[in-house]
Specification:
The chain is α+β, with helices and mostly antiparallel strands. Helix content is 55%, strand content 16%. It folds into 2 domains: 3-49 and 248-379, no CATH class; 58-237, no CATH class. The chain is built from 13 helices and 11 strands. The strands form 2 sheets. A 9-stranded mixed sheet has the order 6-7-5-8-4-3-10-1-11. A hairpin with a 2-residue loop joins strand 3 (95-108) and strand 4 (111-118). The longest helix is centred in the last third of the chain and has 43 residues, at 239-281.
Length: 381
């Protein structure tokens, strides 16, 4: 595009600024919707993880000695497994947010408690992520469910003895109406000392990673990848929890992808129509340019160059709107802050894709402009 063409494009862009502004606004709205959809999708995934944390993780890995029928009856693992298995499990892609645990029934005074030793979450492939399981227990302390605390007459800040080991009650949880009410949460080290099982686990809980919609049996995929890492381990998938999370994620993805295609198509149609109207208004101008010796390809470039500027302005506008209001809008929709998507790659793509898209949308009007017959236009009244 030579200097003369750039001058024509800029002057025409400023002269017909109303239609240019309208087209750029439509592009900006479309860009904003695309970016907001990505933010809402990410925020929805984060909110889903927090909900999943509250109702329980959906993958359970048990020792090889555990009989699953007995485990389903009393939810007590049989036997134990090496603690180093948790290190091995970082090297896989089907389960994340791994929580090493040691669980056993113990008596506290006259009541029975599900003593649960727990360590910090571990993440697949050594990723650094914000924990969602929500419980970190200090050594020497215990967190009690409401029912067992009441039965043991425990008080926050007071000592509690379990099998000759004294622990301080750090917190008494609110009633939940589930087995959590009879649990006593301690650190994994304290549980191993109380149960005399140093370096052992008997339960690992995790969150199922994304399985695509075409995977018919997620449990088969999970077991196939975990078996070589933890041979003989029993893998249980909480189907109701896992399927609910999977269905919610896939539904959100379908809604986002299904809504973006019509938006982009509509944006392209409107930009193309406005470009066509602009060409029809400027037919005499195009005819004069061709009559004065300008090549037809140069006339087409002028039309497409105008839409390039419209796309660039719209992309910058959408980027600005999302940067200023995206967080507030996403939190209003999902109730959770969005992930940080404004990377350099996203910003560059946002400034490059709309101009190219708009140029493609104006391809037909540009051909019409290039095919103008100067002689015929000069005879028109």
């Amino acid at each position: 595009m030579n200097v003369s063409s750039r001058t024509i494009i800029l002057r025409e862009f400023c002269f017909r600024w109303v239609t240019a502004f309208a087209a750029a606004s439509i592009v900006a709205i479309a860009v904003t919707m695309v970016l907001l959809s990505e933010q809402v999708s990410g925020a929805n995934e984060a909110a889903t993880r927090r909900i999943q944390r509250d109702i329980g993780l959906n993958i359970v890995i048990l020792p090889p000695q555990t009989e699953l029928d007995a485990w389903w009856i009393d939810r007590m693992p049989r036997g134990s497994m090496p603690e180093e298995w948790i290190d091995r499990l970082e090297d896989q892609d089907v389960a994340n947010r791994l929580v090493p645990m040691l669980v056993s029934r113990v008596r506290i005074g006259a009541s029975e408690c599900l003593l649960t030793g727990i360590a910090e979450e571990r993440f697949k492939r050594g990723k650094s992520m914000k924990p969602v399981f929500g419980r970190t227990i200090e050594d020497g302390s215990i967190m009690l469910g409401a029912t067992v605390a009441s039965a043991a007459d425990a008080r926050e800040g007071e000592p509690l003895e379990i099998r000759g080991r004294s622990l301080v009650v750090s917190r008494i949880l609110e009633p939940t109406g589930s087995e959590e009410d009879v649990r006593g949460w301690v650190s994994l080290r304290d549980a191993q000392a109380i149960l005399e099982l140093p370096g052992r686990l008997n339960e690992i809980r995790a969150l199922e990673c994304h399985c695509s919609e075409d995977v018919e049996d997620p449990l088969e995929v999970i077991r196939a990848q975990l078996e070589p890492i933890v041979p003989g381990a029993r893998v249980v998938r909480m189907n109701a929890l896992a399927d609910a999370r999977r269905s919610q994620r896939m539904m959100a993805e379908r809604i986002v992808s299904g809504s973006l295609v019509p938006v982009l198509v509509l944006c392209g149609v409107i930009v193309g129509m406005l470009s066509l109207v602009n060409v029809r208004e400027r037919r005499r101008e195009m005819g004069v340019l061709i009559a004065l010796g300008r090549r037809r390809s140069s006339v087409a470039v002028i039309v497409m160059g105008r839409t390039f500027l419209i796309g660039l302005a719209g992309g910058a506008g959408g980027l600005l709107i999302t940067s200023l209001a995206g967080v507030a809008i996403t939190e209003g929709i999902v109730g959770a802050p969005p992930p940080a998507i404004m990377t350099w790659e996203v910003m560059i793509a946002t400034l490059l894709f709309p101009p190219v898209f708009c140029m493609l949308a104006s391809f037909y009007p540009a051909i019409i402009a290039a095919m103008v017959d100067p002689a015929r236009l000069m005879r028109m009244p």
